[in-house]
Automatic annotation (TrEMBL):
Assigned keywords, A-Z: Redox-active center
Gene3D superfamilies: Glutaredoxin (3.40.30.10)
Protein's name according to its UniProt entry: Redoxin domain-containing protein
Classification via SUPFAM superfamilies: Thioredoxin-like
InterPro entries membership: AhpC/TSA, Thioredoxin-like_sf, Thioredoxin_domain, Tpx_Peroxidase_subfamily
Thioredoxin domain residues: 2-171
Origin species: Halobaculum halobium
Amino acid sequence: MLDDGDEAPEVTAPMATPEAAASTERGSYTGGDVSEFSLSDALDDGPVVLAFYPGVYSRTCTQELCELRDWKADLADLDAPLYGVSVDSPWSLLAFMDEYDLQYPLVSGFNNSIIADFGVRREESIMRGIANRAVFVVAPDGVVSYTWKATEPLTFPDTDEVEAAVAAAAEVE
């Protein structure tokens, strides 16, 4: 897993956006509803928060993503985008966003290396290949300035710590 002070990898991946989820009827998604996420492009506007999670529609991940949805208003004051990242396909991410009214993008680790590149890919068990629950704050210079990894089920990052890390990373600009 990447650690504080490590250079974040340049990654691109498919991304589901709130706008696409709202503008297309669930079950009617096409490739045209999928955007592209580029970490370097996202960093052009300041620090970025990446919240990795195993998968949508699981009990714990649904709870976490909804808590992040509710917390995002606080983060908006800090001017840092939040992106959820899992191995789910972009179409399942769009359906989840629509169902739970998420107002932040979800990045698809399906068929790309973003989860492995950040060192959070589960390598053992029947669930091999999914992301372990982790949060990274990446400063505008591309350096990881905060990391958190779940050590127990049903544990989530301390949002006050994430907010403080975002504020500190914004000073790097």
